[in-house]
Design brief:
Elements (H helix, E strand, L loop, with lengths): L6 H14 L1 E14 L2 E12 L2 E11 L6 E8 L9
Antiparallel strand pairs: 1-2, 2-3, 3-4
């Protein structure tokens, strides 16, 4: 079975988010170019912390040639900005 192109990045997102939250579910949002030489992979997790469940967006920005990671950003998705995926 062939891994999707984002498999490496989803494993990294799982690893980083799992350090802080209990992971319940996730969905791949997509890939985008945010600047010359900077690509972003985004994932939406449903997580739990301190008894509260909420959506969390994990964004990984990296160099598409070397695959060097620039940033990993985790932010709670606000109720007003929830997207149906």
């Amino acid at each position: 079975m062939h891994d999707p192109s984002y498999a490496k990045w989803s494993r990294l997102a799982f690893h980083e988010a799992g350090k802080v939250y209990t992971l319940l579910d996730y969905r791949y949002i997509g890939k985008s170019t945010v600047a010359p030489g900077v690509v972003q992979q985004q994932f939406r997790f449903w997580v739990k912390k301190n008894g509260t469940e909420f959506p969390l967006i994990v964004s990984i920005r990296y160099d598409p040639v070397t695959e060097k990671v620039f940033t990993i950003l985790m932010e709670q998705e606000n109720r007003g900005t929830l997207r149906i995926l």
